[in-house]
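TICKET #2291
ISSUE: user wants both folds in one file
ATTACHMENT 1:
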Amino acid sequence: MNILKLGIPKGSLEKATIELFAKSGWQIKLSSRNYFPEVDDPELSCSICRPQEMSCYIEKEVLDAGITGKDWTLENESDIVVVADLIYSKVSRRPTRWVIAVPGDSSIQRLEDLEGKKIATELVGYTRKFFAQKGINVDISFSWGATEAKVVSGLADAIVEVTETESTIRAHGLRVIHELMTSNTQLIASKAAWADPWKREKIENIALLLQGALRADKIVGLKMNVPQTHLDQVINILPSMNAPTVAHLYHSDWYSVETVISEHEVRDLIPRLLKNGAEGIIEYSLNKVI
């Protein structure tokens, strides 16, 4: 039997990734002592590894495909295939940002002010290339964690750190002076796996369903019954990804109307639908929108 070796990111992305796979149709069961979780698909073999290392394992063909951040693929300069962008993280459905931050009372205001300064970061390689391209000489050191504390304690003049909301950065009394790059989660594959017809089709199917699950986030389905006399006015107030589905009810002058809309529109829309003649309104959640 053909098997696809798939990497699942350990750490902050782990829970969100497993939940996304569950919504897409794959149940992945973790064990605290096992780096090889069970998955209800005999064609998949899953491994848990750090997102910082994922692209290296895939480039070396230890894994066929995996989920990791665009930032770590760039940091590692890995020669891989980017299959799909998957915009999600541990907190939100938006890209993360790598930023340069300094103490709130620092005299550093611009990139040029960092000339000769010390910078702490996990993203050493990418940061070094960034400043080299700018022609700014800085002393970059690797941070093993708690990077914000390095600048607070005076071990560094600035940090390059990843953030979604900047809440942790602000909580440490720091301020952002520059955005280095935006990053998001990606499904990536090795060139060898991508060249294999069976593996490529399997990877593409996984990408299709993961993207469908993400697309369904914050979207709901609405179904209702509408008398023929009010059909046009109900249709006119319905927002929709596409034209709503309208079906004539058997032996009746009523219609069944079904549509897909953004979740935040529902609370305002349902009262309007009722006022315009709709009845029996049903709201239901969606797992995937393909």
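ATTACHMENT 2:
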Amino acid sequence: MTHANGTYAAASRAAVFEVRDLHVAVDGREILGGVDLVVRAGEVHALMGRNGSGKSTLAYAVTGHPRYQVTRGQVLLNGEDLLAMKPDERAKAGLFLAFQNPIAVPGVATGNFLRAAMKAVRGTEPINAVQFRKELSERMQHLKMDPAFATRSLNDGFSGGEKKLTEMLQLAMLKPRLAILDEPDSGLDIDAVRTVSDGINTVHAQQSEMGILLITHYQRILNYVRPDTVHVMAQGQIIESGGPALVQQLEEEGYDPILARHGIVSTEEVSADGR
């Protein structure tokens, strides 16, 4: 495997995240039909595909959404069996999901929410108030966020870009081992995409051992967040993987040639939950 800067990524690097022959059903209908994926420490993987191909289903199944039933397979985080854990235990183990559509929580200040989230993830480890405020201020400064965000209600009245940037702030504060970013570019204009991309790159530079699985439909965010590996998903399986050149190929040719090579009819896919 080759990084975007051309250096060789040693196969000996620890696997942070492993998905082995994962099958997932929603309301009795199989959506994922055998997904295999390995993300090593520090790597950025992009997961691309049309609507309904199963990308978000993978994210929600891995994080423990009750509607997504794993019928077969394994998911490991740092060698531990994620599927044996409750959703909160998965977060404590180092799994993070940035939502495609973050919800607003009126009346709960963003800073207070982050402190509560950190306490929940760390368990009994105490959080010093002065130290927390200092770290929050530094992280917001690195992300070029207005300090006033800390006192505003979480996502309440935020623009799309502000919501996604707040997700990056959560990522920076919680310091997971693996971050799943579910369409961080969804609904954003090009300027907001660049701002959120800068946020992702900033957090990843500070947490160089963190693995990232970035789910997206489009090439544009991958102009700024350079992936080590790109995967194409269709009909609940990863049908093709490659380096950054695969992104450009998809931009120029679309999905049709890849789907055709794998004998998949070129129609918009629709899964049981539209994901």
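RESOLUTION: both attachments delivered.
EXTRA DETAIL ON ATTACHMENT 2: The longest strand covers residues 15-26.
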